[in-house]
Amino acid sequence: MCRGVLNSMKPSQSEKRIRSQWDKKKIYEPDIAKAKRPFYNLMMFPYPSAEGLHIGGVRTFTGIDMYGRFKRMQGYDVFEPIGLDGFGIHSENYAMKIKAHPMRLAGKTEKRFYEQLAVIGNGFAWNERLETYDPDYYKWTQWIFIQLYKNGLAYRKKALVNWCPSCLTVLSDEQVVSGECERCGTAVVKKDLEQWFFRITKYAERMLRNLDTIDWSENIKMAQRNWIGKSDGAEIDFKILGAKERIRVFTTRPDTLFGATYMVLAPEHPLVSALEEKIENRAEVSRYVRDAKKKSEMERTREEKEKTGVLLRGVKALNPANGEGIPVFIADYVLAGYGTGAIMAVPAHDKRDFQFANQFKLPIRMVVCPHYPEKTCPVLDTAYEGQGHLVDSGKFNGMKSEDAKKEITGFVGGTLKTTYRLRDWLISRQRYWGPPIPMIHCERCGIVPVPEKDLPVKLPFIKDFQPKGKGESPLASLKSFYQVKCPQCKGKARRETDVSDTFLDSAWYFFRYLDIKNKKNIFDATRVKKWLPVDMYIGGAEHSVLHLLYTRFITMVLKDIGLISFEEPFKKFRAHGLITKDGAKMSKSKGNVVSPDAYFSKYGADVMRMYLAFLAPLSEGGDFRDAGISGITRFLLRVRKLFKTFDKNKKSSPNLQKVVHRSIKKVTEDLESLRYNTAISQLMIFLSEMEKSEEVAKDNIIIFLKLLAPFAPFAAEELWQKLNGKKIVPSIHTSEWPTYDPRYLEDSTYVLVIQVNGKIRDQVDVPMVISQKDVEALVETREKIKPWIFGKKIKKIIFVPKKLINIVV
RNA sequence: GCCGAGGUGGCGAAAUUGGCAGACGCACUGGCUUCAGGUGCCAGCGAUCGCAAGAUCAUAGGAGUUCGAGUCUCCUCCUCGGCACCA
Q1: Which residues, in sequence order, are bridge partners of residue A448?
Q2: For residue range A552-608, what is the model confidence (pLDDT) as tens digits?
Q3: Closest residue by C-alpha to C1' distance, nucleotide B55
């Protein structure tokens, strides 16, 4: 019989029929302008680069859809839009790989993705979909770029930047993962180039501070804190003997200044050339500088490696604390991009300086002692980086190191200073497939933004779109594109030919969904106010310091320029776990990528949704195994079987009330906290109880189907319709979510556990309300307990009502 | 090295405030049923000892607090993720 049910109709067919009913009724299209109880339910939109949707992506999408369906049934106007992040280097690289043109490929991947996304059973608001490569979309990406420029937050600067030799473009710091290109894994090299930057560093403190106010997964907040990397310290100037220049250093330990026995400049430090005349070993120094430039980030930062460096002969600095002349080195363990690019080296209290000092036989002077006031400090075999009292520090001797920070900084005329590890967002890319940066370089007027009325600057079709690697975008070879007149002086000018980073496209897309038809103003105040910030956002932890960082920055900027009234885009964000296959991360190179297509057509969306949800909590990830799917298949077959056999004329059954109300409570709570696995467990228990019962009534089935609806939207809808007769009924997904009555949750009796010395020896049914005295009397009569307490003195009795009694002898 | 999350049966995992460890599912075993071939039903299923009743042990390892610890404290080990020569 059950076999018959399955064979009668392929799951995909009946699901398709139900989908078209949903489309007709438009139950997933809230009225954006007029919604009464708006709820913005969002998932990170996919980039259609690879061979289609990934099973992990499907788990995320269906996962948040369960939440959206739950909220919709609770009476919210749920808005769950979908779009494609199709612009950018990832899509372009994929196009190159399969030897296609990204502009032509976009249409194909778009179609394929939307087809795949249609079958997973999500309540998407299809009418609002967007693609970042649509000129109507990137017009606004460009517009935002111009606003940043007008507000001094976009600028051009020559700097040492990350260059991917394989993608042939510069990258932001966030796109370099342990020295490798985030996209292709190639080791990144440093190049000195003039590029466009966004002044994200101006927002470092605010982004850090706000983390305490938003409800986000803790691991993401931690990653952002690490990335922003705040450290409090001081800037102190060191004079150079016989020169007017000074060496400014940043240090978090100004208290150790008396222990600074040498200084180090980064090889790229401007003083290296400024002091050239004084440097006696010029040849050696410039050789070191040249070599340092050639090294990749990876080589430079390998931990085990010996430190290298060159003494600047003829240069002596003065320690401002004690007037001592100290040598100055250049070494690549000091980074040009952090602090001031120069350090005072205190080998006794910094392990890197300690290592360097030992290699170069430099004095190590201890100035912070952990054993104060003992006169003798231990001979160090490693740097002491902790706190203590100052020694060998002139008038500061005996002072607590923590207090000495401020004192010594003041003593030498330094300033307390906070530094951040975060660096400005390098936004330009020497690639084709992105929004052209809307700027014009005029010989007379300098940089002039494209007038807003001329937006979008359309990306022209170029047959040869491949990156050339000459530090220019392929657009630089198209004269009709770059040759323009200056909007200000009408003189000869050249259009910027770089495109912007794909992460700018995705930094603001949640605004666009709200006003997809509007071409005049994407920040319509009433809509923005009604729907934003996003109520619930779900996505991958890999975007901790990419998308999730940039989008916070852009939102803050939009607030500061008066377009919106909030500064955090997502009230609540939850990171989902990673789906593995046989314990390994899925990747094309391993050949273990699970494509959802075959599974969805074989088992149907309901089974796949529930299987992926049942694996583990959404935040956890899990291993994809075919074997586990059968449990869910069986469950849904049992649901259908029960549905056929229950007595439709019976209205209600008192004996099932307990499991009904428990299930409502459990499923409601678990949906709210995204613990779908235990919600589904409860549905299984609910079903088993009904199967065992002789008197399943219509009311029980109604509640069961409603609780099932977020997880298996098709089966729930189909059975709901059958339950309500043949005529058209409102969808179960817009029906009211059930509430539980606490009266049904408790029994009149419970099983009391009887322990002796903390070990369970017996159990007994007792009334819900029973006095300790009565329990004690009862326990004494229990045959199983007698031998354990016979002839022993009872020392103590612990009675926990509704739980247990423990007799200590 | 620093920061974060973890470590529970053969497997995925459950376990409000400390109170019956292993819910639910997979796999497995035995039985029933069906036309024998991926999907029905019933039962069993942490380990050890035992015919059984039951006992003992068991939540990475060790110590501690407690009548009682997967849960709290301290130490050690391991896994995953982030940062990493950041001064």
Answers
A1: A440
A2: 999 999 999 999 999 999 999 999 988 888 777 777 767 778 888 889 988 999 999
A3: A761
The separation, in Å, between residue A145 CA and nucleotide B4 C1' comes to 35
Write the DSSP symbol of residue A534.
B
- Determine the nucleotide nearest to A308 by Cα–C1' distance: B85
How many angstroms is C1' of B16 away from CA of A662? 14
Helices A102-119, A596-603: axis angle to 10 degrees equals 30
Q: Is the pTM of the predicted complex or chain greater than 0.90?
A: yes
Interatomic CA distance for residues A45 and A57, integer angstroms: 9
Q: What percent of chain A has pLDDT over 90?
A: 61
- Cα(A553)–Cα(A207) distance, integer angstroms: 7
Give strand letter and number of the nucleotide nearest A5 (CA to C1'). Answer: B39
Return the SS3 of A419. strand
Nucleotide closest to residue A803 (CA–C1'): B19
| C-beta of residue A259 within 8 angstroms of C-beta of residue A292 | no
Mean pLDDT for the stretch of residues A255-261: 94
Q: CA of A679 vs C1' of B13, distance in Å?
A: 13
Give the tens place of pLDDT for each residue, A173-197.
999 888 888 888 888 888 888 999 9
Check whether A86 has a pLDDT greater than 50.
Answer: yes
Nearest to A718 by CA among A701, A731, A737: A731
| Interatomic CA distance for residues A311 and A336, integer angstroms | 17
Task: Note the pLDDT of residue A298.
Answer: 61
- pLDDT (0 to 100) of residue A10: 67
Q: Closest nucleotide to residue A423 (Cα to C1')?
A: B86
Angstrom distance, A789 CA to B65 C1': 26
- Residue A165: alpha-carbon gap to chain centroid: 27
Which position has the higher pLDDT, A592 or A110? A110
How far does the CA of A696 sit from the C1' of B40, in Å? 21
Please state which of the ranges A478-482, A598-602, A660-664, A775-779 shows the lowest mean pLDDT.
A775-779
Mark out the alpha helices in A383-444 (DSSP H runs): 401-411
Residue at minimal CA–C1' distance from B40?
A: A2
In whole angstroms, what is the distance from residue A240 CA to residue A244 CA?
A: 7
Query: Per-residue pLDDT for A1 more than 60?
Result: no
Residue A19 CA distance to nucleotide B26 C1' (Å): 31
How far is C-alpha A443 from the chain's CA centre? 43
3-state secondary structure of A187: strand
Nucleotide nearest to A675 (CA to C1'): B14
Taking 3-state DSSP, the helix, strand and coil percentages for chain A, each rounded to the nearest 5, stand at 40, 20, 40
- Indicate if ipTM > 0.90: yes
Give the mean model confidence (pLDDT) for residues A328-339.
Answer: 90
What integer pLDDT is reported at residue A656 of this predicted model?
Answer: 87
Residue A791 CB contacts under 8 Å (≥ 6 apart), including other chains: none
What single DSSP character describes residue A400?
B
Mean pLDDT, chain A, as a whole number? Answer: 89
Count of CB atoms within 10 A of residue A672's CB? 13
CA of A751 to C1' of B51 (A): 30
Cα angle: A293, vertex A296, A301; to 5 degrees: 105
Contact A45, A92 (CB under 8 A): no
Q: What b/e readout covers A15-41, taking b as 16+ CB neighbours within 10 angstroms?
A: beebbeebeeeebbbbebeebeebbbb
d(CA A508, CA A505): 7
Distance, in Å, from the CA atom of A799 to the CA atom of A754, rounded to the nearest integer, reads 9
A223: the nucleotide nearest its CA (via C1') is B82
Protein-contacted bases of chain B (C-beta within 7 A): 2-5, 11-15, 19-21, 23-27, 38-42, 54-56, 67-69, 81-87
- Between CA A627 and C1' B27 the distance (Å) reads 8
Per-residue pLDDT of A747-804, as tens digits, reads: 777 888 888 888 888 888 888 888 888 888 888 888 778 778 777 788 888 888 888 8
